[in-house]
Structure formats: C-alpha cells, structure tokens
Amino acid sequence: MPRIGVLTYGVGNLFSVTRALSRLGAEVLLLDESGWTEIDGLVVPGVGNFEEGSRNISAHRERIADLIASGVPVLGICLGMQLLFEESEEGPGRGLGILKGRVLRLRVSAKLPHIGWSRLRVVRDCELLEGVNSGDWVYYVHSYAPSPEDPEVVVALSEYAGLEFPAVICSGNLYGTQFHPEKSGRTGMRILGNFVALCVRR
C-alpha cells in the first residue's frame, strides 16, 4: 500500500481527493510541515485563486522540488497543476516554476468559469492515462489553463466553446490535470488509480 501525501495549503478540496485515493487502496497522509520523507507520492490539489495559492504554497517550494528531483510521482490537480508553472494572468504571484510557461485566461465568448463535463482528446502516450481514451468525459471548474513553453508536456486536451486547452500534462514523474479527477466518474478514478500504481512501482 503506497503512502500518498496530499498537500494542505489552504486552497484545496481535500475531502473528495483523500476519499478517492483511500478507495483506491492508498494510505493518505495530509502534509503540512512534517511527513515529507515518508511518502511514495504527492498530490497537490487546488481550488481558488492563483495569487492566494502561490502565496500559501511558497513555504513548500523546496520540499516539492526535492521530491520531484528524487523521482517521487507528483500530481497537481486544477489550481495545483497551474501552480507548477511560472505565473498566471489571474493575478500576481510566483508559481513553483517547475514547468516553463504561463497560465492564461480562457479566451472564449462563453460564460466563465467553465463548469461541467468535457471530452478528452489524448495526443500523446502517458502512463497516467493508461486505459483512458479520447472521447472520455471529465469534469471541470476553471477559468484559466496553462500554456506550456514545451508543447510536448501536453498529453491530452479538452475543448470549451471552440477553444482547446491543455487537460493533462506529463513530464517525467510530474503530472497534472486541469480537471478534477476525483469528480470525473470512472475516467477520473482510472486516472487516480494509475497514479496510485505509479507510486507503488516507484
């Protein structure tokens, strides 16, 4: 049974994430200042504003970078994925900068935030998406999405009001979903299950 840390930094919806991981057989450890050396994987959840998130996560910057460098699988969800990048149009604040690029507002004429179900379009192989197909549905609540400098890190896209945006990123042992897998039914549970399996194999 892998021990997966879920970062508590004031902007995450922790209950649904921890419940989903527990259902998949993981031992979940809520992380703040301690426990970092005891985990096989890390999830960075996030609901809210980039400025607040960047401020709150700054105390954990070095710990997260050290985990990634050591090969521990790390998964960012929604705002947690956006914080892996350098900065955001949503407001001031410095992201973790682990991935190069900015987070941009969705430039659509439709209502924001984008709330609801959209299909995935898988564009590259990634172990996080094993068993997930183009056309599978996932659940979003967001107005922003990352624009990576390296397009190769984008492994799946979604579309809203005619605009395609990155849905899933993969770079080594670093993963991210712009949608909420814990709210995305069977597809989301498959993705979280793949992440748990990655933590087991480590």
Descriptive report:
There is one protein chain. With 202 residues, this protein is an alpha/beta fold. The chain has a single domain (3-201), classed as Class I glutamine amidotransferase (GATase) domain (Rossmann fold, 3-Layer(aba) Sandwich). The protein has five helices and 13 strands. It has helices at 14-23, 50-57, 61-69, 79-82, 185-201; strands at residues 3-7, 27-31, 41-44, 74-77, 87-88, 101-105, 114-119, 121-122, 137-142, 144-148, 154-160, 163-171, 174-177. It has an eight-stranded mixed beta sheet, with helices on both faces. The protein has a three-stranded mixed beta sheet with strand order 5-6-10, with no helix packed on it. It has a two-stranded antiparallel sheet with strand order 7-9. Strand 1, helix 1 (14-23) and strand 2 form a beta-alpha-beta unit.
Count of DSSP E strands? 13
CATH level-two architecture: 3-Layer(aba) Sandwich
Q: Could you tell me the CATH topology label.
A: Rossmann fold
Number of domains: 1
Mean pLDDT: 95
**Helix proportion of residues, in percent?**
10-25%
Strand order of the largest sheet: 2-1-3-4-13-12-11-8
Structural class category: alpha/beta
Q: What is the CATH superfamily classification?
A: Class I glutamine amidotransferase (GATase) domain
Subunit organisation of the chains: single chain
Over the alpha carbons, how many angstroms does the gyration radius reach? 15 Å
Question: What sequence of helices (H) and strands (E) makes up the elements?
Answer: EHEEHHEHEEEEEEEEEH
The low-confidence parts are: none
Question: Could you tell me how far the N terminus lies from the C terminus, measured between alpha carbons in angstroms?
Answer: 12 Å
Share of residues in strands: 25-35%
Q: What is the helix tally? A: 5
